[in-house]
Amino acid sequence: MARSKASKHRQKLEREGRRNPENNRSPYAFADLTTRRTKTKKDYVYKRKPKNHLFPSGDNDSFYMGMIKKVLIS
């Protein structure tokens, strides 16, 4: 790959005994300062909301209704 103009300029400064501008950069320039947080209860509820998670898995919302006969003995 070709070197950029800025990269060539930095190398020239180093060759001449001057300080490389890369060394002037703050250590925070390379740090990842984004905040990470755990999910809240509300995040989990909204994630599950469109799906039907009211019943345990494997339940297909069907039921069986049996008939009970009463035998009358007289």
TrEMBL record:
Give start-end positions of Basic residues composition bias: 1-12
> Residue ranges under compositional bias (Basic and acidic residues)?
13-22
Query: Where are the annotated segments for Disordered?
Result: 1-34
> By what name is this protein known?
Uncharacterized protein
**Organism (species):** Alkalicoccobacillus murimartini
